[in-house]
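Backbone-to-sequence.
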């Protein structure tokens, strides 16, 4: 059976993009693989969350994991910072990670551009921490989106380099995994190409949003003044609404509004009302489970403890063997 590892850096509530891009695949994979799924709260520290917020945000993400159908009896669900072994392997990998290759990483260069006031060593070594997450369980497959391909490539470099330096065949080469056609990018409500937490609250619909909030967000989504001639290309905002409708609504609804656009009779207000109701229909069962889970502190603490125990068992074995390979010996 393949070993599968993946994590989500987002802490706090998860949005439809996170669900379709990550969680939905995790849920499928847990059926036929040995899976480790975690909330990457160490990674989240690169942006300096306030201590008052950290725990609550991890809890929200955990609840959303469970509400999405991740089953702690099938997959190992854990919080990254519950595994000190991650930190140890990260330290060891950093010894053979070179400044040049870390600096060339696209996500690092992007951060230099977007947050020049906080270029910390954690950002620089983000790929070694991610590699540690993955090879700690000697994973074969990593379900992630396209944006993570370079990080995966670096993970393979670090794993292969370890094998070469120590003359062993210890770490498998992990490969990115997705369900081909199933990989979809959910666009934002504000006319941006991607639904994302960092784009502000009106861009994203969260699994935990109430019907009122969903209606408000969808009704405020960016559109344009409407088509004036048949065949007129759609603006990005309108295109996004159609993309969401394709995922959330029935084919009949979609073609009704596509036709109306073609005929220049479309009323975006009507389209948004319909889309909002279809989104609510989709999120309602999630929201119900979220509310239930949030109130069940004993269950959450059992899940986290059980996940940490199982993950540490796997991690401790690897660390033990890695220390031996490197040459640490007991006195
Ligand atoms: P955020 O954009 O909220 O910061 P992350 O970048 O932390 O989300 O992504 C967490 C996971 O969710 C990743 O696997 C990513 O590929 C997926 N994901 C995030 N946004 C989208 C989206 N708009 N469409 C599809 N997948 C997404
Ligand atoms: N970097 C990933 C993201 O931003 C999150 C992540 C951290 C991850 N560690 C991982 C993903 C290990 C897969 C495996 O989405």
């Amino acid at each position: 059976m393949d070993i599968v590892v993946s994590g989500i850096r987002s802490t706090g509530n998860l949005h439809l993009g996170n669900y379709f891009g990550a969680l939905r695949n995790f849920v499928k994979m847990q059926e036929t693989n040995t899976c480790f799924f975690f909330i990457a709260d160490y990674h989240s520290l690169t942006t300096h969350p306030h201590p008052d917020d950290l725990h609550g945000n991890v809890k929200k993400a955990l609840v959303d994991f469970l509400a999405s159908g991740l089953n702690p009896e099938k997959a190992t669900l854990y919080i990254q910072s519950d595994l000190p072994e991650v930190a140890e392997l990260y330290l060891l990998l950093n010894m053979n990670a070179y400044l040049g290759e870390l600096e060339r990483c696209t996500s690092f260069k992007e951060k230099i551009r977007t947050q020049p006031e906080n270029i910390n060593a954690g950002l620089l070594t983000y790929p070694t921490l991610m590699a540690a997450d993955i090879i700690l369980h000697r994973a074969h497959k990593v379900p992630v989106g396209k944006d993570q391909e370079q990080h995966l490539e670096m993970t393979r470099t670090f794993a292969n380099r370890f094998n070469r330096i120590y003359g062993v065949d210890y770490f498998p080469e992990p490969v990115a995994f997705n369900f081909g056609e199933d990989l979809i990018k959910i666009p934002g409500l504000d006319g941006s190409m991607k639904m994302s937490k960092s784009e502000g609250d009106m861009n994203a619909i969260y699994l935990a949003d109430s019907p009122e909030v969903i209606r408000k967000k969808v009704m405020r989504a960016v559109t344009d003044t409407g088509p004036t001639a048949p065949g007129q290309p759609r603006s990005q905002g309108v295109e996004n609404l159609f993309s969401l409708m394709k995922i959330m609504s029935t084919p009949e609804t979609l073609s009704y509004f596509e036709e109306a656009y073609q005929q220049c009779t479309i009323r975006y207000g009507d389209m948004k009302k319909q889309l909002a109701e279809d989104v609510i229909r989709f999120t309602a069962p999630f929201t119900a489970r979220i509310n239930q889970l949030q109130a069940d502190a004993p269950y959450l603490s059992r899940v986290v403890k059980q996940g940490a125990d199982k993950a540490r068992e796997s991690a401790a074995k690897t660390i033990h063997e890695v220390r031996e390979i490197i040459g640490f010996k007991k006195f």
